Amino acid sequence: MVDASVAQRLVDDMISNLPKHDPGKRPVHTIGVGVDGYFTASDVARKYCIAEHFSGQRICAKVRFSNASGSPEQHDGWSDVRGMATRFLLPNGAATDLIATTLGEFFARNVEDFFEFTKFDKQKPCQRESPWRKILDMLQLKVPRRAPYPGEKTNAGAGILSYANRHRFAQLAVFEAKLIGAPVSYARAAYHAIHTFMVEGPDGVRRPVRFSWQPVAGVRNTNPDAPPDDNYLRQELDHRLRRWPARFMLMMTIGEAGDAIDDPTRPWPAKRVRVVMGTLTLTNVAEDQAAAGEHISFNPWRLVPGIEPSGDPILHARRDAYEVSRKMRGGIACPFFNRS
Amino acid sequence: MPNGGSWFDQFVNELPKKPWFKRVGAWILVPIWAWRTPVKPLRGGPRPSIQPADNLQSMMNLIMPLKRENKSPIGRAKAALAIAENKDQIFAGLDNVGTVHFARFVIVNDNICMFSVYDGDFSNYIRDFIATIGGVFDAVVALVEGGDDVLPSAHKVEAFIEWIRRHDLYQVPDTATDFLRDQEALNGDNAASGNDDLSLLPRKLILQLRANANVSLGSGYRAYPGYSAAQVRERLGIGW
Amino acid sequence: MFNFADVQGNIVRGYRGKPRVRHLVLEIADRIAARRWLAACASGGDNVPQITTGDWGADKPVTCFNIGLTYEGLRALGTPDSSLETFPNEFIEGMHARALKLGDVGESAPENWPAPFKDPKRIHLVATIYASDIAQLNQVQDQALADGRTLRLLGGALDGCSFPDDLVHFGYRDNLTQPRFAGVHDAERYADGQPKAPLGTVLLGHPTNFEGLEWRVPEPEQLGHNGTFNAFRVLKQEVVAFEEFLGTAADHLLSQASVDELLPLGADAIGQGLSPRDALREVVAGSICGRWRGTGTPLALSPDRPNLLPGMSLTDFDYDSSRCPYGAHIRRCNPRGGQIVQRVANNSRRLVRRGMPYGPLYDPANPRDPELERGLLSNFIGANLGAQFEAMSCDWLNLGLQDPRITGSNDPMLGANDFKTSWFDLPLRSGRTIRLRGLPRFVQTRGGAYTFLPSLSAIRFLGSLMM
User: Fold this and answer.
1) Which pLDDT tens digit goes with each residue over C79-125?
2) Which end of chain A is more exposed for a tag (fewer CB within 10 A), N or C?
3) How many CB atoms lie within 10 A of CB C59?
4) Residue A257 and residue C437: Cβ atoms within 8 Å?
5) Residue C161 has what DSSP assignment?
6) Are B89 and B133 in contact (CB under 8 A)?
C-alpha cells in the first residue's frame, strides 16, 4: 500500500493540473454515464477462477462509462481515452469491481514515475500550427500537429510528449493515447483492465491474468477529420439500449513466466492464451444518474476470494488514491474486502 | 479539422492528399532522408524468446522472387506444377513433421510465396522439412533467383536454412514502440530510456519500409493462441 | 574399417577407467608457438602431452589428453578467413550468443557467468586431461603449459571427479547409454534397443541420421573431416533445492487421493524400511529422470520398483507403451523410438555425453554449505550443433514440443523452470496423471563454449599453418 499522504499527494497533483475542477466530482473520468446490466459467466470460467461472479449464474452489474478527461466541460468528440468501470453485485451482498479503459497500458511503472508525469502534464496554450511549420514538418517526413478543436484553448500534449521522449516505458501509452480518437458509442470500444490479477482455480492453481472487454458490436471510431460533437455519447447509448442490449465479452489473457506481471506499461504479447470468461449484457441507462453515475465509487481493490492483486505498484497506489478522491467528492463508501 | 484559417492554411492541409505531392515525397524526400539517416534492414521471422507461447504458432512469410527467365506465365506455371506434382510429398511432410498448423504456397506477381504457421524453432522446422520434402524445396527453389547457390538442399542444409531465413519477412511488431526498440537494438541501443523524439516515428517507419520493402504487419492474429498443432489434434481426439 | 587413430579418443571412448578430469580454458598468447604446440601434440614429441586418439593399440594410456578449439581460437591461430567462413553459424557466434536457444536466462544468462566464461572472445582452446589422480593431472598440465608463453590459462582449472557407480549429483547414475556407432561398436557387448547410429551423428564427413542430408564439412577437408563439435558446459546443480523439492512433492502427493496408485507395491518395494514419504521422494526423483536413483533402472522397464530384475537391461528398452513419464528427462532428451510429434526426427538428435561431476557429494546431515558449488562438467558431442544439441535444447528440453502432453513445460531436471508456472505430470497406473507444480530451476549454467574437436589430421594441418 502507499502511504496515506502519498495517496493524497497523487490526487492533489492531478487536481492541480486541471484548469477547472469541481470538488464534488472526480478529478479524472469526470464526465460519465451509469448503465445497468447483467453478467453471465461462460461454462469454462469457473475452471480458472473460483470467484462467485464466474460461477455461471446471472449476476447483476452496474457499469459507468466515462471520458478520461478531468475537465468538467464535456467534449465527447475530442480524442480521449474512455473508461468502463463495472461492479458485479454478488448474491450474498458483496460486490467486486473491474475497472478498464480504452488505453491498453499505463504510462508510469510506479508512483515515482507518476509524480514525474504530473510535472509534465501541464496545460499549455495551444494554437494552430502555422502552415509554414506544417510544410517544414512534411519535408522532414513528420506528421504535422493536430489543429486544436473548436473551443480548445489549452492542452497538455506538448508536455506529455516531452515526458514520453524521456522515458521509453511511457512511449506506447502516450503514442496510443494520442491516436485514440473518439468512439461512435461507449458500446463500440474495447476496454482493458491493464493491471495483472492473480486468479485462483478450483484446484488451487494460481494464474496471472489480464482482463479485457471486447464489444460484440465491434470497435468503431468517429471520423477524425469531421468536426467533433461535444455531447452525443450518453444519448447514443440511451437510444441504442432502448432498441437492443449492448454486449461485451470478458476476455482473460493468461500470462507466462517472463511476462511483465507487475509492470502496467507493458502489454502482453498477442500469442498468449485467451479465455472467454463471460458476457456482459447492458440493458438500460440507469434512471438515477446521481447514484449510478456520480456517487457510486469504484475501486480496483474491491475483490472477492478467487481474485487477488499482483504486485503492480500502480495498482497498489490506486487503492488509497481512489479512496482519497472518493472522500473528497463525497462518493458512497462501500465496505470493501479488507486485504493487506 | 479545418475551422477557419487562411486559404494558405487550407491549401497546406490538403497537400498530403495531392498525387503530385505524394510523388515528390516518395521520389525525392524519402531518398534524401534515407541517405541522411541510413536504416539497416531488420531480420525476418519472429523475435527470439524462451517463453512457451511465443514459440507456438509462429508465422513464416517467405517471398521468393522468380528468376528473370521465369518471370512470365510459363515460369509461374512451372512453379505451380512443382507444387501440384508433389502433393503427396507435401502431405507426408506435414503429417510426419507434425509442427505445422497451416501452410500455403501463393504466387503473387513474379514471386512464389510460402506462408505457414509452425511451432518451435525455425531452423528445426526447415531442417525437418528438408529431410522429408527436400525434393519439393529443390523443385521450387530452382526456379527462384539465387536459389541455385543453396541446392541441393540436402547437401547444403545450413546454407539453405540461412537462405530461407533471409527471405522470411521482418515482422513489424504489434506495437509501434516495439518497432522503435527493434531499430534501436539493431544499432546497439538497448537503453531503458533516452532522449528520443516520438514525432520522428513516421519517418523511421517510412525508411524502415524502404529497407524492408516486404513486411508482415504484426506477429499475426490467432483464434486460439498458445497451443501447438499436436496439442490441438490431441485435444480434438484425432491423433497426433 | 574405420580409422580410429584419426579421431580424438574422447569422441568414441568414455575413459571409464580415469576417475579424474581437468579442463583448462586457454587463450592463445603466441600464434606461431601455438601452431608448433599443436603440431607437437599430434606427432609424438615428448615435451607436450600427446593427443589421445581412438586407437589405443595394446595398452591403455596412463592419462588422456584432448583438445577443442573455439571459433575465436581458430581465428587466433590464423586459420584463413575462407576456411573460417565454412564453419557453422552457431559455432561462429559462440555459446554465449545462443543463450535464448539454450535456455540460459536469468541466473544462467551468459552475463552472469563467472570467469573465465565472462570473456568469451578470449577463450580459444579447451584442453581436457583425464587421469587417475590429481598428481597426474598436475603433471600433464605442467607439461602442457610448460613454456608459459604459448598458452595462457584463463581462470582456474576446472576439476571433476567421478563418484563410484557412475553416480552424479542428485543421486542418479549417468553414462549408462551412449549412441553406438555403425562400424565402431560391437553389437553384442552393449545392447540398448536403439538402432546403431550412423557415424555422421558424431563425425563430420560421414552419413548422418537424416536420410540423404549432409552437414557442411568445414574446409579444407583435412581440417573438417572426422572432426566434430562439442558443447562444453559447466552445469551447477542445486542439490539442496532438489532434495527439498522431493520432500515438498512427497508431502503434496501424500495428500492426494490417488497416492496409493503411486506405491502399488508398498513403500518397501522402493526401499527396505522406507517410510511412504521417503518412498514417494524416490518415486518423484525417478519420474523426473526416467531412471531410479541409485540403481539407474529405467522406469520404462520397471515403473514400480527400482530393482533391476534378472534379464532386465539398464539400456535395452524403448518407450512404446511404457509408464515412464512423457516429460522425464531421459525421455525428453532422447525419445528413442517412442512416439513424438516430429516423427522424422526420432534418433536424429542423439549426442555423445562425456560428463564428470565436480564438487563434494551431498551429505544430508549437513545440507547447507553455501561456499561449495556442485555440478557437472559436461560435454555434449555431435556433428552438428544446430541439428543436435541446440535442436534438442530449444524444442525438446524446453517447450516440450515433441509430445502435446508436455508442450508448454520444461524438462523437470534441466529445464529453464520458473517455480511460479512450472509443472510436471506423473502418470498413474489407471491412466490418469497427477500434476506436480512449483519446480524451481535445479540446474544453472555457469559457463561453457562451443568447441570444435579436430581430427588428428586437422590438428597437424593447424600445426602447419603458414602466414
Assistant:
1) 999 999 999 999 999 999 999 999 999 999 999 999 899 999 999 99
2) C
3) 6
4) no
5) E
6) yes
CA A54 to chain centre: 22
CA distance C430 to chain B (A): 19
Chain A residue with CA closest to C436: the answer is A205
CA distances C233 to A326, B152, C99, C121, C390, Å, are 59, 34, 12, 16, 13
Q: What pLDDT does A337 receive?
A: 41
Beta strands in C72-218 (DSSP E): 125-131, 151-153, 158-161
Same domain as B191, residue B155: no
> What was the pLDDT predicted at A336?
52
The pLDDT assigned to B183 comes to 92
- The verdict on B134 and B69 lying in the same domain is yes
Cβ contacts (< 8 Å) between A254 and chain B: which residues?
A: 226
Q: Is residue A150 less than 8 Å (CB to CB) from chain B?
A: yes
Q: Which phi and psi angles does B192 have, rounded to 5°?
A: -75, -30
Domain that holds residue B118: 52-169
Which domain CATH number covers B142?
Answer: 3.30.70.100
pLDDT in tens, A103-136: 999 999 999 999 999 999 888 888 788 888 888 9
Could you say which residues of chain A have pLDDT below 50? 337-340
Instruction: Spell out, as residue ranges, where chain C has pLDDT lower than 70.
Output: 1, 185-191, 369-371, 467
CA atoms within 13 A on the CB side of C307: 8
- Tell me the C-alpha to C-alpha distance, in Å, between residue A198 and each of A262, C103, C264, C349, C440: 11, 26, 37, 39, 20
Domains of chain A: 4-121+157-329 (2.40.180.10), 122-155 (no CATH)
pLDDT, residue B12, reads: 86
Residues B228 and C162: their CA atoms lie apart, in Å, by 41
Set of cell numbers at residue C286: 525417478
Q: What is the pLDDT of residues C342-385, one digit of tens each?
A: 988 888 899 999 999 999 888 877 777 666 889 999 999 999 99
Place of cell 480496483: A300
Q: Do residues B140 and B196 both lie within one domain?
A: no
Contact (CB, 8 A) for B64 and B167: yes
Q: Which residues of chain B make contact with A227, given a CB cutoff of 8 A?
A: 1, 3
CB contact under 8 A, B50 and C100: yes
Q: Given an 8 Å threshold on Cβ–Cβ distance, is C418 in contact with A205?
A: no
State the DSSP H helix or E strand holding residue B115, giving kind and residue range, or none if neither.
strand B111-118
φ/ψ of A183, rounded to 5, equals -75, 155
* Same domain? B161 vs B180: no
Report how many domains make up chain B.
Answer: 2
Q: Which cell numbers in the block locate residue A239?
A: 437510444
**Do residues C299 and C291 lie in contact, with contact meaning Cβ atoms separated by under 8 Å?**
yes
Q: Which of C371, C420, C364 is nearest to C247 (CA)?
A: C364
Chain B contact for A247 (CB, 8 A cutoff): no
Q: Report pLDDT for C190.
A: 65
Q: Which residues of B touch A166 (CB under 8 A)?
A: 193, 195-196
Please name the residues in contact with B113: beta carbons below 8 A apart, sequence gap of 6 or more.
B61, B62, B63, B64, B105, B106, B107
Report CA-CA distances (Å) from B9 to A147, A148, B14, B29. 11, 14, 9, 21
Residues B121, B199 share a domain: no
C418 to chain A, any CB pair closer than 8 A? The answer is: yes
pLDDT in tens, B191-227: 888 888 888 999 999 999 999 999 999 888 999 999 9
Q: How confident is the model over A276-306, as pLDDT tens digits?
A: 999 999 999 999 998 888 889 999 999 999 9
User: Whole-angstrom Cα distance, residue C286 to residue C272?
Assistant: 17
Whether B152 and B98 map to the same domain: the answer is yes
* pLDDT on residue C371: 62
